[in-house]
């Protein structure tokens, strides 16, 4: 039995040079998205008003972020 | 390659968030309603005027909750995929599925479990408005420290692995992680702003739902992304096992 397919080679890492730009730009946008769900118009606010806070209110409480 | 993994991570996050929404709506919303009822009772008893409703409860508990969970799910799924893209083939010799599952477990412990042990979720009516600044700072400080401790623990396990083998290296790194977390949890100031008349079992139910939501999110992300990433990274292995 030739079972070479059952011994997969060690996984090949993704080159750092390819990963870095994605990590920086996508990472930044994704962290910003989490900020709007978790903290905007709570302890700190970029916008005036309470609409974002009130709209995601239940999700913020149930995800365990300090809401108000 | 990275773009394709990122997309798969965000899709896994969205799938996880849909399931988490079902759970949160069924088991979390009754607890939120209980807390808001209590809050309104107290305000009425104190003769305070009713607060204007910017967003209706019906919207908050459905579209609002879904938006919050979907955005959060897609975001953590995407970040998870980026961390995976670094860890795959570097941290262990494991395949895509196993790497994804282990990474999700590490994320659940460091992102959800550890911060929630010290600063558990609070329903509406718990927590005073004056301390939201300090409570938010403490929460995010603990979150960052917890993630950093996990990264260091994984780095320690990697270093020890060659000499002592994966099993012993894992135990040593795990104990080191627990020791660091124990010290940090002990050192950070406690927050306790639960009103005396808030039913203990309702508070416990609320906090259990929070842990449950995170457990659903990370389990589904870990398993779904593992399968999606394997299809992209290891098409040969898929054939071999089929």
UniProtKB/TrEMBL annotation, chain A:
It comes from the Bacteria. The keyword Transmembrane applies. Keywords: Membrane, Transmembrane, Transmembrane helix. The chain crosses the membrane at residues 20-37. This is CbtB-domain containing protein. InterPro entries: CbtB_put (IPR012667).
From TrEMBL, chain B:
It comes from the Bacteria. The keyword Lyase does not apply. The chain crosses the membrane at residues 69-88, 100-117, 137-157, 169-188, 208-229. The lineage of its organism: Bacteria, Pseudomonadati, Pseudomonadota, Alphaproteobacteria, Rhodobacterales. Keywords: Membrane, Transmembrane, Transmembrane helix. Pfam families: CbtA (PF09490). The keyword Transmembrane applies. It comes from Paenirhodobacter populi. This is CbtA family protein.
